[in-house]
């Protein structure tokens, strides 16, 4: 409802507009702003991916669902190799460009059911529902390594980067999120140090 009252003389004219806003409309506005706030609280400010807090919440949900339905899922753990050198030699702006491009490439490979998150720095994780087969996991890792074959453009200059990737599966490697992340993180560092030849050879394979 809109009420308009006009007050004035020959010299002045004032229009006072009264808006009557229903409680329902106020609730809608509040809920919309609240939803926007929650969405921002769950997103990484640089890449727009899920942040660590939201990732932990989702992996706990995945565990609960898998436990009830006797399902499986896999977690991939990514760490960019020599990322510190990019930041040190080219600056944080260039480092941010690398992270943004890496996040974009991850999105292009993912299924709608997968969840990608940036845990912090140059560390990323993906939840892959329904995946628990060793060969299928190796194939996934191979696809993710291939996506980095094309150099990244940083300030119009091509740079070749690589990532070390570890994984853990529910329930084979753990039944709580701390254990799953710990196992995936350990496997990732084994690859980085050249100790996990199984995953390392998968990353190097061009078959």
UniProtKB/TrEMBL annotation:
Residues 71-203 form the GGDEF domain. Pfam families: GGDEF. PANTHER family: DIGUANYLATE CYCLASE DGCT-RELATED, GGDEF DOMAIN-CONTAINING PROTEIN. It comes from Zhongshania aliphaticivorans. GO terms for molecular function: catalytic activity. InterPro entries: DGC-Regulatory_Protein, GGDEF_dom, Nucleotide_cyclase, Rev_trsase/Diguanyl_cyclase. Its cofactor is Mg(2+). Transmembrane segments: none annotated. This is GGDEF domain-containing protein. Coiled coil: none annotated. PROSITE patterns: GGDEF.
């Amino acid at each position: 409802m809109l009420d308009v009252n006009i007050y004035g003389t020959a010299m002045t004219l004032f229009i006072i507009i009264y808006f009557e806003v229903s409680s329902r409309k106020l609730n809608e506005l509040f809920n919309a702003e609240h939803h926007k706030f929650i969405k921002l609280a769950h997103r990484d400010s640089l890449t727009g991916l899920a942040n660590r807090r939201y990732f932990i919440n989702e992996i706990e949900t995945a565990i609960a669902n898998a436990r009830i339905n006797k399902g499986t899922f896999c977690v991939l753990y990514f760490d960019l190799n020599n990322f510190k050198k990019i930041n040190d030699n080219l600056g944080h702006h260039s480092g941010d460009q690398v992270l943004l491009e890496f996040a974009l490439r991850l999105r292009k490979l993912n299924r709608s059911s997968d969840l990608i998150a940036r845990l912090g720095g140059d560390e990323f994780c993906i939840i892959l529902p329904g995946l628990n087969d060793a060969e299928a996991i190796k194939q996934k890792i191979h696809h993710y390594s291939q996506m980095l074959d094309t150099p990244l453009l940083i300030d119009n200059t091509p740079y070749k980067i690589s990532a070390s990737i570890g994984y853990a599966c529910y329930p084979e490697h753990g039944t709580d999120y701390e254990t799953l992340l710990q196992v995936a993180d350990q496997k990732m560092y084994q690859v980085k140090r050249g100790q996990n030849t199984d995953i390392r050879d998968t990353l190097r394979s061009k078959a």
